UniProtKB/TrEMBL annotation:
<dbReference type="InterPro" id="IPR003838">
    <property type="entry name" value="ABC3_permease_C"/>
</dbReference>
<keyword id="KW-0472">Membrane</keyword>
<dbReference type="GO" id="GO:0005886">
    <property type="term" value="C:plasma membrane"/>
</dbReference>
<feature type="transmembrane region" description="Helical">
    <location>
        <begin position="46"/>
        <end position="65"/>
    </location>
</feature>
<dbReference type="InterPro" id="IPR038766">
    <property type="entry name" value="Membrane_comp_ABC_pdt"/>
</dbReference>
<dbReference type="Pfam" id="PF02687">
    <property type="entry name" value="FtsX"/>
</dbReference>
<feature type="transmembrane region" description="Helical">
    <location>
        <begin position="283"/>
        <end position="306"/>
    </location>
</feature>
<protein>
    <recommendedName>
        <fullName>ABC3 transporter permease C-terminal domain-containing protein</fullName>
    </recommendedName>
</protein>
<feature type="transmembrane region" description="Helical">
    <location>
        <begin position="374"/>
        <end position="397"/>
    </location>
</feature>
<feature type="transmembrane region" description="Helical">
    <location>
        <begin position="487"/>
        <end position="511"/>
    </location>
</feature>
<keyword id="KW-1003">Cell membrane</keyword>
<feature type="transmembrane region" description="Helical">
    <location>
        <begin position="780"/>
        <end position="803"/>
    </location>
</feature>
<feature type="domain" description="ABC3 transporter permease C-terminal">
    <location>
        <begin position="732"/>
        <end position="842"/>
    </location>
</feature>
<feature type="transmembrane region" description="Helical">
    <location>
        <begin position="443"/>
        <end position="466"/>
    </location>
</feature>
<feature type="transmembrane region" description="Helical">
    <location>
        <begin position="815"/>
        <end position="836"/>
    </location>
</feature>
<keyword id="KW-1133">Transmembrane helix</keyword>
<feature type="domain" description="ABC3 transporter permease C-terminal">
    <location>
        <begin position="286"/>
        <end position="403"/>
    </location>
</feature>
């Protein structure tokens, strides 16, 4: 064999590669030129708009939730004042501290407990003491101000007060009228007031610590003699460092001291914030899912129309020698380019849209939002290409493979036979998008199936209603209903899309307006709107007299004892084989009370109440759901531990408690024989009609240590947050309506040839332009009215279900929402439909009759 042959073959390989490369480049340039012509002719504008809406919706929500999530993560360390904390109601074991100190971590400690301070005028005040080590905090900023400077002028410091000095917050300074040079007595020691605490990074970790803050050095704690046996103190170790070292320390603590300390890290911080973020993200993500699905319907219609229009060109190319693969690549490249352009514009619009969304909800989360990351635009772009592939790839493949003879015969039946397959591909694409957004397999299945079922129900009901309207329509609307009947498939798709969007907006409005109003109306007019906690035993009579002198009728002043459940029928509730849920319950402290009479607003549902003359033995009355959830029965014995003392009682009855009544309620109420004599504070609630601040002025000085809570202000805050949240969801659902409009445009575009021929024939038969215009407007108005009717019906049914089974509130039918849904849908869709078909109506008959498709 000649040696020249291998050389010639090796030279031929690069030449073949260059030829293929040049061929692909020519195909790409040809597709680019074709795309320009398509856009100028309007063939792909609807497809581009549908893709743009889907990308903008997904990107806007993605940008927003990413910013909120990273802000929460950024501030979580500040909320803990560390990267990791370990806390216990007992002193931390020396071996634990020694092990942590040997690791590559920064550490700090503090002890937190309630106590009483006395000023130089012998005035006392209940306070929350925090004894800190020298390098507190490890994360976040402790802001302090001098006693004689405005609170707007502060220093950010880390450390503890100097020995013999205290830092106090402005609440205590105001209550005791402290000034420079004053001293406070704490236990056996006296301390000079040094600085004002303006901000404490981890104060929010214990959100219900109402007493004023006093901070001392950890070194002064023992000399002051503030802690004795049974003292209610929390001992905390703070840790900060590299992620690997923190994770190792966490594993050690959770393995070796799982029953002795509570470990909390950045991932566990601010659970309320994370729950709020999770709910907002799911609601907003649902709006994006619905938008993508409706945009997918528009994409499917637009791509099918595009494929039909390109079938002729594909046949010509194949007769000129192009292969099926080359034709499919040519068509797919044009769609990929339009998806890329739509993604860039959609990402830009999503960025500006999330700015509005962030302004709506930033006050809710109270965070300075960082710049968003790259995941939102990446997922937005993937959404465009996945939706395009799922809803449009099959028609393109069929357009490239359609038989040349069928094209010449104008037979496209082979392309129509794949509607169900295309829909299946689209649902798979939607599932992939939902999973990308949620990262939750079960949630993705539930959401996609739920939306698909709802769209199917809308389509089924809509088809039946279209037939009904057709049979009932008089001569005036016969032409309009005939158009709906002839284009039943596209009309049903449009109807389902608009009904879904309108229903979402109506449902949010019902929840925000009607159910919230029902909740407010469900409360009695004289429902308590003020709570007072931390009432000391020696203040009960004086406070009762104060309330009576101001004409305020309270629900009673009730004793409250903090205790931990330690045993059930003599068996410890915490054991080696306890589940995580049992461990959390065992470490929880409950608020207990005792009484000779049934608490107001409570109802005995099983068992009997004890004697009211105070002669009853230790007995318990427990809340029904609380007992059932834990498997406690009447006759069982529960043991609680409070201030180091264990006390037991037998369950005598179950109570039904209305927790939303704003009365003072407890999970467990005992006979006096069980809890009387244990350290306790008192709590009360009442209703006031006047201004909260004016009514309670001077109470804190008269009764040091009490904390007054304005529940009315809390209700107002909740309503404001609900309004903001629902407004944000409505804002995102506007993308859904826009996606529905894309479905309408795509349907009109796909039926454009048919509408042109109909218009020409009717004009040739004597119909005026005004008659045609009225027929088109009536056609879309009927479609919109049916969509609005279905949306109103299903929104009302879902709202009724929510009110009965979730919120447990009375439901009132709101006729205005039906009026808005039906007439708003008719007007909006009629307007949009007329604008979309306006060019068809103005097409001259001679041009229309020459129209090929």
């Amino acid at each position: 064999m000649s040696l020249a042959n291998p050389v010639s073959v090796e030279g031929a390989i690069p030449a073949a590669q260059q030829k293929r490369k040049a061929g692909w480049l020519r195909q790409f340039m040809f597709a680019l030129r074709s795309l320009g012509r398509d856009l100028r002719a309007g063939e792909l504008r609807v497809l581009a708009l549908a893709l743009l809406v889907a990308v903008a919706s997904v990107t806007a929500v993605g940008f927003f939730t990413d910013r909120i999530g990273r802000a929460v993560e950024r501030q979580a360390g500040d909320v803990l004042a560390a990267d990791l904390m370990a806390s216990s109601g007992f002193k931390l074991p020396p071996e634990l501290l020694s092990n942590i100190e040997q690791r590559d971590l920064q550490t700090a400690q503090y002890v937190r407990f309630p106590s009483v301070v006395i000023n130089e005028r012998e005035e006392s005040q209940l306070v929350a003491i925090k004894a800190v080590s020298g390098n507190y905090p490890l994360r976040g900023t402790l802001r302090l101000a001098e006693m004689n400077t405005p609170e707007t002028s502060f220093n950010a410091e880390a450390g503890s007060p100097a020995p013999g000095t205290v830092w106090v917050d402005s609440q205590l300074r105001s209550a005791l009228e402290l000034s420079v040079g004053d001293t406070l007595t704490l236990g056996a020691s006296q301390f000079a007031v040094d600085k004002i605490i303006l901000f404490e990074p981890d104060r929010g970790e214990n959100a219900f610590e109402f007493a004023p803050r006093v901070m001392i050095s950890l070194d002064d704690l023992e000399a002051a003699g503030l802690l004795g046996e049974g003292s209610r103190a929390t001992y905390t170790l703070l840790m900060a460092g590299e992620t690997a070292a923190v994770d190792t320390a966490r594993d050690f603590l959770e393995t070796e001291y799982t029953s002795e300390v509570r470990v909390q890290g950045v991932r566990d911080g601010s659970p309320q914030m994370k729950r709020a973020l999770d709910r907002a993200q799911r609601f907003l993500g649902l709006a994006s899912v619905v938008t993508v699905l409706l945009a997918g319907a528009a994409i499917a219609l637009a791509v099918r129309h595009f494929a039909l229009k390109q079938a002729d060109a594909s046949a010509v190319m194949r007769t000129l020698g192009a292969t099926r693969a080359e034709v499919i690549v040519w068509l797919s490249t044009r769609l990929a380019l339009i998806a890329l352009v739509a993604s860039v514009i959609g990402i830009t619009l999503g960025w500006f849209a999330q700015l509005v969304l962030a302004n709506l909800l930033q006050g809710w989360f109270g965070l300075a939002l960082p710049a968003p990351g790259f995941m939102a635009p990446l997922i937005g772009t993937l959404t465009a290409f996945i939706a395009l592939a799922g809803f449009g790839l099959l028609p393109i493949i069929q357009a490239g493979r359609v038989n040349v003879m069928r094209v010449l015969q104008r037979d496209y039946s082979s392309m129509d036979a794949s509607a169900m397959t295309t829909a299946l591909f689209g649902f798979v694409a939607t599932f992939i998008v939902v999973f990308l957004l949620s990262r939750d397999l079960l949630l993705s299945v539930i959401v996609v199936l739920g939306v698909v079922v709802m769209l199917a129900i809308f389509g089924l009901f809509g088809r039946v209603m279209i037939k009904g309207v057709r049979s009932l329509a008089g001569p005036r609307f016969r032409l309009s209903t005939a158009g709906l009947q002839r284009r039943a498939a596209s009309s049903t798709v449009q109807l389902a899309a608009f009904a879904m969007g309108i229903m979402a907006l109506l449902l949010i409005s019902i929840v925000r307006i009607d159910l919230l109003s029902a909740w407010e109306q469900d409360l009695p007019e004289d429902a308590p709107n003020v709570f007072i906690v931390n009432i000391q035993p020696d203040q009960v009579e004086g406070l009762a007299a104060q309330l009576e002198s101001q004409g305020i009728q309270s629900t009673g002043i009730h004793p409250m004892i903090r205790a931990r459940l330690v045993a059930h029928n003599g068996e410890p509730v915490l054991s080696d084989d306890s589940s995580d849920q049992d461990e959390r319950r065992a470490r929880r402290e409950y608020n207990l009370s005792y009484s000779n009479s049934v608490p107001a607003g409570n109802q005995i549902v099983s068992g009997e109440w004890w004697a009211t003359d105070g002669s009853a033995p230790p007995l318990l009355s427990v809340e029904q759901e609380w007992a059932e959830e834990r498997g406690y029965a009447i006759g069982d014995t529960l043991t609680f531990k409070s201030a180091g003392v264990e006390t037991s009682a037998t369950i005598a009855n179950w109570r039904e408690v209305d927790w939303e009544s704003f009365q003072v309620n407890f999970f467990a109420v005992s006979s006096p024989a069980m809890l009387e004599g244990l350290p306790s504070t008192y709590i009360t609630s009442f209703h006031i009609d006047g201004d909260f601040a004016a009514t309670t002025t001077g109470w804190v000085r008269q009764f040091p240590g009490i904390a007054t809570l304005d529940v009315g202000a809390i209700i107002t805050r909740i309503k404001s947050l609900m309004d903001r949240a629902s407004l944000a969801v409505e804002y995102v659902f506007l993308f859904t309506l826009l996606a529905g409009f894309c479905v309408l445009l795509a349907a009109v575009q796909s039926s454009r040839g048919e509408r042109i021929r109909e218009s020409a024939l009717l004009r040739a038969l004597g119909a005026s332009h005004q008659q045609l215009r009225e027929a088109v407007i009536a056609e879309f108005a009927i479609l919109g009215a049916i969509a609005g009717l279905l949306a109103s019906l299903f929104a009302t049914l879902i709202a009724w279900s929510l009110s009965q089974f979730v919120f447990e509130l009375p439901f009132q039918l709101n006729a205005w929402l039906w009026i808005i849904g039906i007439f708003g849908g008719a007007f909006g869709i009629a307007t949009a439909g007329y604008l979309a078909t306006r060019r068809v109506l103005y097409t001259p008959p001679i041009v229309a009759l020459r129209h090929a498709n």
